[in-house]
Amino acid sequence: MPTQQVCDLFEDLRQEIITLLDLKKQVDRREYDIAVLKSRRESILTGREMAAPPPPPESADDTDEAAGPNIRKRLSTSEYRDSPDKRARHQ
Predict the structure, then answer these.
(1) By C-alpha distance, which of 79, 61, 51, 56 is closest to 25?
(2) Fewer beta carbons within 10 Å, N or C terminal of the chain?
(3) 12-43: per-residue pLDDT in tens?
(4) Ordered DSSP codes for the chain
């Protein structure tokens, strides 16, 4: 039942999920940077030509394999809470 308390809790959960997804994206970028630097370091130390760096992480702006595309849009509850038609149906 979409009560105000449930909607507020869901909104808090949604914000935490978005924060975690953003942090995961930052970690992926830093891990990629580290892999590139290690590859450069290895090529300098061995005197060999630098091997191709690993592919960059895919952009996770609005997608996540586990969550599916447009997670930010799907997790939005503001439209649900603000819609009098939907609110009336569930009261």
Answers:
(1) 61
(2) N
(3) 999 999 999 999 999 999 999 999 999 889 88
(4) ---HHHHHHHHHHHHHHHHHHHHHHHHHHHHHHHHHHHHHHHHHHH-PPPPPPPPPPPP-SS--TTT-TTHHHHT--HHHHH-HHHHHHT-
